[in-house]
Design a protein that fits this description.
Blueprint: E1 2-11, E2 24-31, E3 34-38, H1 41-46, E4 52-55, E5 60-63, E6 73-77, E7 83-87, H2 91-107, H3 111-115, E8 123-125, E9 134-136
Parallel strand pairs: 8-9
Antiparallel strand pairs: 1-2, 1-7, 2-3, 3-4, 5-6, 6-7
């Protein structure tokens, strides 16, 4: 997937605030487990000087419609703690980017993490038994 986007850094690695919070235009290209941001479509086609190469392994993507001063927005939180906000030209494109990025991030998880069931907050293993726990047996 590829296309025009606007982006701004919302949080730096480690959760620090960036010194500047302006929106910039770019051309995004999703390949494998990476999202590349280029200055424009020509540079993306020539694969010249990307502005950023983002590893989507373990990333989380969330829709943020109409927030942060832009329509059609979504956020991408990387495992480093860095969070980048994106705005697409249309609602349909924002939805497509959100689905593609979320799918890519999910596919990058190890088979062990994919297969692990989501547990209830009140569920615990026998060895951790405490009041309020729903006991489960560990395999």
């Amino acid at each position: 997937m590829e296309g025009p986007l606007e982006f701004k850094q919302h949080l730096l690695p480690g959760g620090r605030q960036p010194s500047s919070s302006s929106w910039d235009s770019c051309h995004g290209t999703l390949q494998g487990n990476s999202l590349s941001l280029f200055l424009d479509e020509r540079m993306a086609k020539e694969k010249v000087a990307s502005l950023a190469l983002l590893d989507l392994t373990g990333a989380r993507c969330e829709r943020l419609p109409g927030r942060h001063g832009r329509k059609h927005t979504f956020s991408l939180r990387l495992t480093s703690g860095e969070e980048i906000l994106f705005a697409a030209p249309s609602e349909e494109q924002a939805e497509s980017w959100w689905r593609a990025l979320g799918s890519t991030a999910a596919q990058s998880l190890s088979p062990e993490l994919k297969a692990k069931p989501v547990s209830s907050p009140n569920e615990c293993a026998t060895k951790d038994a405490r009041p309020g726990c729903l006991l489960r047996s560990d395999p």
